[in-house]
Structure formats: structure tokens, C-alpha cells
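Hi team,

Filling in the usual template for the complex we talked about on Friday. All components are listed, including any nucleic acid strands or ligand strings, so the model treats them as one assembly.

SUBMITTER: L.P.
PURPOSE: interface mapping
COMPONENTS: two
RESIDUES: 643
SEQUENCES:
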Amino acid sequence: MAFTVRLEGLDKRFGRGAREVHAVRDLSLEIGEREFFTFVGPSGCGKTTTLRMIAGLETPTAGRIWFGDTDVTALPPQQRDIAMVFQDIALFPYMTVRQNIGYPLRIAGLPRVRVDEKVEKVAATLGLSDKLGQKPGQLSGGQQQRVAIGRAIIKEPKVLLMDEPLSALDARLRVEMRTEILRLHREISSTIIYVTHDQVEAMTMSTRVAVMDQGRALQIDPPRMLFRRPADVTVATFIGTPAMNIMPAVIVSTPSGPAIELLGRQTAVAPRHHASLQGLKHVEVGIRPQAVQLVAPGPERIAGRVFLREPLGLEDEVLVETTEGTRVKVVTAAREEEFPEGMVVGLEFAPQDLYVFDLESRRTLAYGISSA
Amino acid sequence: MSRLQRSGPLVLLLVVLVLVAFPFYWMLLTSVTPREALFRPPYRLFRLDFSLGNYRELLFATEFVRYFANSLIAAVGAIVLNVIAATLAGYGLTRFAFPGKKTFAFGTLFSYMFPPMLMAIPLYILFSALQMRNTYTGLILAHMAISLPLNIWLMWQYFQIVPLSLEEAAWTSGASRLAALRQVCLPSARPGILSVAIFSFALSWNDFTFAFLLQTDRKMFTLPVGLASFVEQTGVHWGMVMAAAVLVSVPTFLLVFFLQRYLLSGLRTAG
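RESULT (copied from the run log):
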């Protein structure tokens, strides 16, 4: 049987009475062998608490954690087949790089020669061979994180836990380390469970992502699915940069069935979505900034004025204010002369790029609404 | 900035230095001046009749060596027990949640405010009942009663600045709690431990109150008590008293001299 990490109704509360914080609420999921599974979400969403419960550093208030067939819920971290990389790197300052990386093996009682052998191998994979004699304080941030990763992978744990390992690094180094971690994931046999608040990290590295909010997993899916089929408004706006435009809209009846009235224009809804929009009036509609086009103003078009234009590089992020006052973000080619700030423009988008969300539950009701 | 302004602090430092250093100089000078030369005018700042006679008399004609040994045993005992107790207590206070923890921590600091005399009398009664007067154990425990509260507080502060993630990194590497404490926490808290050791030593080494009340047997006298008895017995043999004072300050001086770096960093954390 394949090794899986299974969370069953995991629940965690901190504090008591009025000061109680419900950090994780009834979380159940299964992580497959050698998966790169990421918990992503804003701070305080329960992602780190979940990771710490898997590590054995926090005890769940309720629920169980399974490693394969073993119930590890009550086991301390020392008795779980895990290793962990910490947000603040947490290298032992009084030990050399060699001693830091070799620490888990020395604790396990391996003979010195074997430890040295393995340390040198791990250091070589991480490009640290010439740093073995140094103390962590003499290394750069990126090198320190490499040492921390080396210390985690040296005992080849079944489960490798990473708690925002890149957040202490600067932007360029983060991108570099992302590639490095991905390469490691291919080389080692551990299941990687990763925590980050950065959706780009989650999207680029993971095989599957759990988007967390207020202690719950809103959606657990592969990155592309999160982007294409977000389960609700929170996921839709969290995944993708710049964030998806969310606008109020009304469902109206037409002779050919329901239609969405958005920014003063009606869009027909394909029959397969009729049922899910049945009986609704006010909804929210989302569209990604990349799916909106700026065009010359015309009688049939949504009209607006370019309010703000920010260069992103190849593209510009343009904020357009429609005549009714709704602001729509658009990503367009970086040709400022076409639609400079203050210019009156038209907005166009394809109906299949629209997402419809329920106003109350905020769940996704429909996407690709005009396609059959 | 004028030259006067710049040299101002320097002059001030020099004045303070003279004020502090002169008694030491006088102590050294007196200790090597023969008894008969001490009160013979003229009294000068520099004297040439050097002799180690006072030291010889001190070491061979008095119980000084015994007092010194007693003091050393008490001090070493106080250091060892203080370091163990304060380290474990400080670790416990930072890493475990238990009811009444805040009260305990404040109570600890509060108990340090009592003057030693206030504790000496109850301790006298207690140790009489337990037959622990005139024992090293009793004296060491008495010294701990004054130094331990501040030491616990100091270690408590120290462990607060040792990141918990260091220990967690050790645990997830497979180390037990005790191994993590020893291999990861203690090295980071070493300046604190040295501060505790120095403070425990200084308090025990200089204590008069407890030693005077609890150690009534001459054989169990410590240095401060023993030195005081010199003053009464011999009609103040100043040269010898000063020779004793020199020898008493040697261990303190060495300790502070070699560990001053840690002592200062310890005070910075506590303050």
C-alpha cells in the first residue's frame, strides 16, 4: 500500500473562553506518496498550525493524523518519520555547517565516518561543499536556508515539512531556491508538505494545493484547477495576479432563458448553467484582468475612462472606471500611447471568461457561462 | 568641539579611577609593609620597606587557610547548585505553561527584595531544628536562598531570547527534550549561565550575615567572618588584615577578569 499522510477531522483551538482561537476547523484530506502538497492562505488561516500538528509540535484538539497505517496523532515529533525546515531557518548557531547538517544522524547514533560521508554527499547536492567548516553566522541567507534544507533531507524522512522556508529571503533568491526545492523534490523520495502565504510559490511548485481561510480548506486541487475552476470568491481572488475583478451583477429573464446583466450589458447564459442560476437575482461576477480587452469606445460597448496605468514590464496594469463608477482592472500590452490615463475607452470580454458567484455563500455557481 | 570638551569626560574618568583604585593601592601597600613600619611617621604614598612578613604570619600563624577553604567550598557549592537549579527553573518558566506561572515569576523576584537579615533568623531556627548549622550544606542552602531568585529570573530572561524554533528543529531532527536542551539551548544560554555562576560566587564569597549567624564553630568560619575575628583578637594587626584582604579579592578579581565579557552581556539582557 502506498504511503499517505491522512488528516481526519483535524481541529485545533488555542486559549480558552473569550480568548479562544479556532485555528483549524474539521480539516480532512489525504496527501499521496511523494506529493508536493502546499497549504496556502493569508496569515492566521491555520496553515502553519496544520503543518505543526503533522510535525507533532502541536497536539490536535480533535481528529486524527495517519502516516500510512500508523496513527501518529499522539506521537511526539521524534517518533514520526519527519524532518522540518523552519521559517526562521533555525540553524544551531554554535555548530558548524557540517555539524548542523549531520545533527539528525549523530542523534540517531550513526558512526562518525558514516555521518561525514552522508554530510558531504548532501552538501555537494546543495552546493555547500566549501562551507562545511563555517558557522551559520558567516553564511548568506540563501546559503543558510540551504544548510537548513540539508539538515532536513539528510535522514531521508518519509515526510518533509517546510514552513514558509523562503520568506526570509529576498525576491531574487526566492525564485532561485524555488527551482532548487523543485529539483530536490524530483531527487528525493520524501513527500513534501509545504506552507506559504505566497500563491506564486504554491502555484509553481505544488502537485496539489489546499487554499486555507479561517481554519478551513476552501479548495484542494492541482494549481491549474485552482486557477481555472476556483471553488469560491476567496480562492478566485487569491490565486492569480493581479487579483480577479469581482463586480455586482443581476440575473435577468429573457425569452431565451436567464442572462447576466453586468456593467449595463446583458450576456446570455448557456443552458447547462440555467439550473444553478435558477431563482437568483443578485450575484457577483468575476473576470480576470487578463481576460478584459481595452478597445475604442463604441455604442454597443461598456464605456469607461482610464483611471490609472502601472507598467509591469511587457504588460501594463490599467485601472478603468466605468461610467457607473465600477473599477475594472485590465492587463494589456505596454503601449501607453494607445490608451493613456484619462482617455475614454471601451471594455470587452468573452462570456466564457466570466465566473458567477453566489452573493451569500460566495461559492462559484458557474464559469464559462456561454459555452455549451 | 574644543579640546576642553573632549578631555572633560577623560578627566572625570581619571578622578573616579583614583577614587576607586586608591583604596586597593593602599590595601596592597599596607599588606607588604612590616608591622613596626606601618605607624612610623612620616606617612608617605610610597614606601620602600617591602616585606612578606604579614603574609607569612597570616598563612602559618592563623586559621586563614581553613577559612579560605571553607569559603571556597561554600562558593563552589553555591555555584554548582545555583547553575543547575536556575537553568532548569528558567527553562521551565519559558517553555512550559502552568497555572500561576506569572505569580511564581513575580514572587521569585519579590523574594529577592528581602534583606538577608530577615531570612537569616528563620533560617537559624530552621537549621537548628534540622541540625544543619555548622555544615556546608546549610551554608550553601542559605546562600542559595538569596542568590537563586535573581538567578532564576536571569535564566528566565535568557531562555526567552533562545528561539523556540531552535529546539523544535532539534526535536524534529530526532533529539529528545533533554538532548535538545543540552545541545542546542544551553550553548545559546551560556552567557546567562556564566552570569549566574559569577553572581552566585560573589554573593557567597562576600556573605557575612549568614555565615556569622549559622557557622558558630570556629572551624566552619568563612573568610568574611574569620577576617572580622582578626580585628577583635589581635587588636587590629592592619598589615595582616590587609594581606588577608588582598588574598580574598584574588579569586573575585580572576573570575571577573576572565569572564567580564559574559558578565556584561548577562547584565545587558537582565537590564
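MY TAKE: Chain B touches chain A through 17 residues (CB under 8 Å). The longest helix of chain B spans residues 238-270.

Thanks, L.
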